[in-house]
Amino acid sequence: MARLSGLQRDVLALYRQCLRATRQKPLETRPHFRAFARQEFEKNLAIEKRDFAAIEYMLRRGHRQLEIYEDPGIRDVHR
Q1: For residues 11 and 79, what is the distance between their CA atoms, to the nearest angstrom?
Q2: Which residues form the Complex 1 LYR protein domain (predicted)?
Q3: What is the distance of C-alpha 25 from the center of its chain?
Q4: Is 1 helix (H, G, I), strand (E, B) or coil?
Q5: pTM, 2 dp
Q6: Most CB within 10 Å of its CB: which of 27, 35, 48, 62?
Q7: How far apart, in whole angstroms, are the C-alpha atoms of residue 70 and residue 11?
Q8: Is the Cβ–Cβ distance between 40 and 62 less than 8 Å?
């Protein structure tokens, strides 16, 4: 497998954090959280790999969103 750049590793790490965060949610809503995370990442696949500013912006935005959704008061998410 090819070596990953720092940004690629950051994106994968954020995705893993999102999937780990779903483990803290109620069993019946976990699939909603997984589908939401996947949808958000797939939505941004069109961003050019060399558009570092856009990728860094999306990473910051993703971390803020993850922080919000990790709150125990958030029990479900709808797409």
Answers
A1: 21
A2: 9-67
A3: 15
A4: coil
A5: 0.90
A6: 62
A7: 18
A8: yes
